[in-house]
């Protein structure tokens, strides 16, 4: 079945460091791919998405490129801030399906 | 601003009790979902509904049931709570098929359930 695998956390970085959170997927067909973020005490909210191969999603300085050849959707940010501390979830939606399949989440902590 | 509201942020129940978790959305979304969130396991889908009175099992439906009598409300029911159902429960909604928003879930803030 469909699945999403994220890099193990937690991840701790200093402010202004470069961030990469790895995400790979297994799915039939051409899924849409998402990154959701969960700030402390809140529900998940959409960070960015990509719906076809080579698409780049971007928001709030974060980027991720849909790589079909490597079945990956890695999240990157050039310079993280303390306010980026949160749990990040990679997810996929197979075409025609209504539900999302989520990875296990990666907790990110940014120290000043 | 679109909103998904979960009625209880924190609940403590005893083993064997019947538990209701309520979720209401004000966006006229067709689809509604219940996920549970556990450390190291991410989000796992329990049930979802794509229309009033319609429901489909997700990946872990055992021990749960749902009810959707009105479009805006989706309830999760634990018929006889057990300690392994201690978890964070997240409700979400989305538009039906088609349109920009069809892929995007809007989540509630979550209900943390502890079963003693």
How would you sum up this structure, described in words?
- The complex is a heterodimer of chains A (112) and B (116).
- Chain A is an all-beta fold.
- In chain A, 0% of the residues lie in helices and 50% in strands.
- In chain A, strands 2, 5, 6, 10, 11 and 12 form a six-stranded mixed β-sheet that branches.
- Chain B has no helices and eleven strands.
- Chain B is globular.
- Classes of the chains: A mainly beta (112), B mainly beta (116).
- At the A-B interface, strand 5, strand 6 and strand 11 of A face strand 4, strand 5 and strand 9 of B.
Entry summary:
Chain A is 0% helix and 50% strand.
List the helices and strands and how they pair.
The complex is a heterodimer of chains A (112) and B (116).
Chain A: E1 3-6, E2 11-14, E3 19-21, E4 23-26, E5 32-38, E6 44-50, E7 56-59, E8 62-65, E9 75-77, E10 86-93, E11 101-102, E12 106-111
Chain B: E1 4-6, E2 10-13, E3 19-25, E4 31-38, E5 42-51, E6 54-57, E7 65-70, E8 73-78, E9 87-94, E10 106-107, E11 111-115
Parallel strand pairs in B: 2-11
Antiparallel strand pairs in B: 1-3, 3-8, 4-5, 4-9, 5-6, 7-8, 9-10, 9-11
